[in-house]
Amino acid sequence: MKKDNNIKEKQPASTENIYKLDGRVPIGKAVPFGLQHILAMFVANIAPILIVTGACGIGPQDTARLIQTAMIVAGVGSLIQLFPIWRIGSRLPIVMGISFTFVSVLCYIGPAYGYETAIGAIMVGGVVEGILGLFAKYWRRIISPIVAACVVSAIGFSLLSVGASSFGGGTGSEQFGSLTNWVLGGVTLLSCILFNIFAKSYWKQLSVLFGLIVGYILAAAIGVVDFSSLKDTSVVALPSILPYKPVFNINAIISVTLIFLVSATETIGDTSALTSTVLDRDVSDKEISGSIACDGFISSLSACFGCLPITSFSQNIGLVAMTKVVNRFTIATGACIMILAGIFPIFGALLATLPEAVLGGCTIMMFGTILVSGLRMIGDCGYTQRNITIAALSLSIGLGFTQVPEIFDMFPRMIQSVFAENCVAVVFLSAIILNLVLPKNMEADKN
Questions:
Q1: Structural domain span for residue 173
Q2: What pLDDT was estimated at residue 348?
């Protein structure tokens, strides 16, 4: 057996290995495929940073540093997923990035309690998810596909107002809803749509990037891009440890930890989809456990550098499914490129100058896609009476009650802070309870 292993190790690098999980690939062939993964996700990786820092009133220079950190942490997280450390990591071609799942709750916690409180909550919530990930085989079955589908749908709904706010110019902007912002957002969105229509093959995956570039060029041409933050930017820099001293608030911790559980359900779905559609097999408990543990612990590490939680990126799993490129070394080259991009601050500083309306033009499309993905997941679960009841009731309670938060006035302040304006948490809790208490067979007897 040892001899066979040595023979495998000495096999020459081959381009054909890009379709195999393991194997050597010539670096010149691997880099373009790795770079494609970065191009497919880097807008989605920085967008949550821009949205949350905008809501929290963080300046462009600090935002640039967080973007720099986001690139490095996403690269490190992707490498750990590809090449696990102990039981942390799935050993699958999963690309990690800053999670949109937390945007709505952090846009509430940040302005209400301060960004430092959000960082403290992420640290604790990440550890909780990481520990739960290590024991995932004991609990993951209570989160059925219909629960995950309802949660993803709720995330899509909750982000629509965030996208609309960015489209208008950002919350608190003096020019909110101005003609300039309408033009920038509209041109960006139209560019995304046209590129998606006319681009061929995997180039369609870059429609958001194309729209961002067009919108940014237009914004620069009409003089609404502020380049003043670039003048003091250093050439090379590493992220700072604890740039924001964490504050631990029990209400914020509970809220964020609940969303970490929601994120875990998405990770289960992403990992399962990858193995079934690309590797043509069922996902193992070890892979599920490793992917969730990586989500949690690396999110806590991200918070130590002042950044937001990370998770597996569904769009990259879709890219793997489309191209069939699963080689871990090949995708690792993309993770290394991401780390290198984060080491050069000018990259983050330039992205931090992106006008809110341009970002809104891109994200309004992305958020709508999340919503449609959730609805499609509900359809994939099947329209049984039980599934219809879980979906209809959990979404009605979660979306309806949080639109009139006064309905929670009778509850203690802690309950109000967690649920009153957090539709994702309410949908998640409602769907879990319904999934546990409803009978397995609710179909009407036709006899």
A1: 17-227+244-371
A2: 66
Output the six-digit token pair for 387: 């599934």
What pLDDT does 430 receive? 92
Low-confidence stretches of the chain (pLDDT < 70) are 1-11, 36, 39-40, 42-43, 171, 201-206, 229, 315, 318-319, 321-323, 348, 351, 414, 417, 444-447
**Residue 251's closest CA among 437, 414, 388?**
414
- pLDDT value for 202: 55
Q: How far is CA 381 from the centre of its chain?
A: 23
Q: Which residues pair with 96 in a beta bridge?
A: 312
- Residue 73 structure tokens: 């942490």
In a domain, 142, yes or no: yes
Q: How does DSSP classify residue 88?
A: B
Q: Is residue 389 one of the residues assigned to a domain?
A: no
144-160 burial, b if ≥16 CB within 10 A, otherwise e? Answer: bbbbbbbbbbbbbbbbe
Task: Quote the CA–CA distance of 309 and 123 in Å, as a whole number.
Answer: 9
Residue 321: in which H helix or E strand, if any?
Answer: helix 314-323
Asked if the structure places residue 326 within a domain, the reply is yes
Which H or E run contains 312?
strand 310-312
118 contact partners, CB below 8 Å, separation of at least 6: 52, 56, 106, 109, 110, 252, 256
Nearest to 293 by CA among 315, 266, 264, 262: 264
Neighbour count for residue 231 (Cβ, 10 Å): 7
Q: Give me 321's structure tokens.
A: 């499914």
The DSSP secondary-structure symbol of 354 reads -
**Contact between 342 and 97 (Cβ < 8 Å):** no
Domain count, the chain: 1
**Distance of alpha carbon 39 from alpha carbon 16, whole angstroms:** 23
How far does CA 258 lie from the centroid of its chain? 16
Type of residue numbered 111 = P
Q: Using CA atoms, how far apart are residues 313 and 296, in angstroms rounded to an integer?
A: 14
Strand, coil or helix: 311: strand
Q: Please check whether residue 50 is in contact with residue 215, taking contact to mean a CB–CB distance below 8 angstroms.
A: no
Q: Which pLDDT does position 40 carry in this prediction?
A: 62
Alpha-carbon distances of 361 from 86, 165, 216, 272, 291, rounded to whole Å? 41, 10, 11, 31, 32
* Burial class of residue 368, CB neighbours in 10 A (0-12, 13-18, 19+): middle
Is 444 part of a structural domain of the chain? no
* The two structure tokens encoding residue 30: 């691997």
- Hey, which residues does 312 pair with through a beta bridge? 96
pLDDT given for residue 18 in this prediction: 78
- 3-class DSSP state of 96: strand
Burial class (CB in 10 A: 0-12, 13-18, 19+), 127: middle
